[in-house]
Amino acid sequence: MKNTLFSLLLILTASIGMLAQNSAAKQEIIQLSKDKWQWMADKDANKLSQLFHEKSVFVHMGGSWGKDREVNIIKDGMIHYKKADIHSVSVNIIDSTAILLNRITLLAAVGGNEVTNPFEVTEVYVKQNGAWKLGSLSFTKLNTTN
Question: For residues 92 and 141, what is the distance between their CA atoms, to the nearest angstrom?
Answer without folding.
Answer: 21
